[in-house]
Amino acid sequence: MTWKRKLRWIAIVLLSNMAILGIAGYLVLHSQGLHRYVLAQIQKQVSEATGAQVRIRDFGFHLSGLRADAYGITMRGSEPANAAPLVQADQLMVRVKIVSLLRKKVDLSEIVLRHPVVNFTVRKDGTTNLPTTPPSKSNSSTCPFDLGIQHVLIDNGEVYYNDVKTPLNAELHELGLEIKSGVIGDGYDGRISYRDGRIQYGETKALPHDLTASFIATRSEFMLKPLVLTVGSSTIELDGQLQNYSQPSASASYKITLHPQDARRALKNDGIPTGEVAVAGSLRFQQQVNVPAIRAVSADGRLYGRELTVNTSDLRTVIRNVRGEFKLFNGNLDVHGVEADLLGGHVTATAILQRLDANSTGKLHVSVQAISLPAANVAVRTASLASMPLDGEISGTADAAWAGSAKNIAAQSEMTLKGTLTAAAESARIPVDGMAHVTYEGRSNLATLTNTFVRTPQTRLEIEGTAGQKLNMKIRGQAAGFVQLRMVALFAICLQLLAHEVAQKSHPFSLTTSPAADWLDAAVEFPSLGDVVIRRQRLEFPGRFPGNFRAGILKRAKKLLQTGI
Prior knowledge:
The chain is an alpha+beta fold. Helices cover about 20% and strands about 50% of the residues. The chain is elongated, with a radius of gyration of 38 Å.
């Protein structure tokens, strides 16, 4: 027999077998009894393999396209019978491709899942509604790139996450995923997206957000290009790549544009500033054996914001020209170049945090220059501050350091005042300057005030003492003239009012005068924050001043201290 006749007979046999299989398949698929039997077997096999209760409303085979369709799929885990099932889907379509009849090799060619709805629950005890999957009978694993899948599509999906233990709720709507085999090589191109995602923690309101991302995946590399997460009017953009899945290394660039006001409704806080802040930089990760993740990650970034408006019941101001940079490397964080324009002045800051993975140490430095007191009067909505007859600027520095817990913090600050002081009934402006030195020890929770004074050419008011669980402050003032005397007296009264507001109580108060004195000496002690008591108060006025002045200022002081106005 010639080779041409052999090929002819082989073709005839193959066509005959295909015809027989087609007729048999047609009879099987169109027999109601066999259809129900096959459906029951499919449900049984899938249930045993997943550990879930699987129900399928109907199925169909299409031999011409080597395609199988399942409709009305329901998968129940360990949730109660009256609860929403773990998974529901309108349709699952699977298409296969015959690679080799001789080697009996068949690959999945396409998977399409339409309108899947996932309901995942975490109970108070930490258990979930996932089914208990039976142990696999095979120890072999298959690489996804060896499956030969050319197309995967998830269309119009929904995900509902309910964590009663945390508590945390999340929803994803219009979830879509499409993966196609690459034009060149054995990689895949993919895209994932969802809309109207919502995350709610505790009593906070849900924060709607959308996500879109495109990616390329190969056997050795995963590339993201890009991921865009939109939360209100804020956005997060991320481009990057991951290499070597067994010991991954990753690099990425990011840009975050934040509008803080987007979080007002979710956090129920109208005091959150309005404006825009942007952060841009890069991320790197290299997995290393026995190295904590924080040391394997490095990052850098730059912060910038043109204007942030703060508007609360206590404060109304605008923060302008916000800038800063940071760098994270080997578990150490360096924040530098932080600056902003505030209250007519300028604020700068730096911070260094080392060994974030262990007993960390930190240093912080803050500097303020030329903060305007009139601007502060306008910004701070406090009547007692607005009534201060003081104009000028405040500058200073503060430094803090700690090791381990923040309870071990030690801080010190130095502030200076330069300005002018004007009495309520006087048009003359009196030069005034001052200085404050404050130290704080976190272990003892004690703040100490030393070398703190306010002075004019003819007056001086000194304050010293400690504040902690008990408040022990001493105030001493001296003056050598009629106007200066009233200034010191009123300033001492303002300090009294401040202590009165801290305690939120009314306390008896008395004043005495001595007509033989030619100077003023006011001394006050407050033994505790919880019970402000004026132990000693002595105001002595020069005898040459008329008695009605002495009586008037005493009356005013008593009224201020008793009524707070």
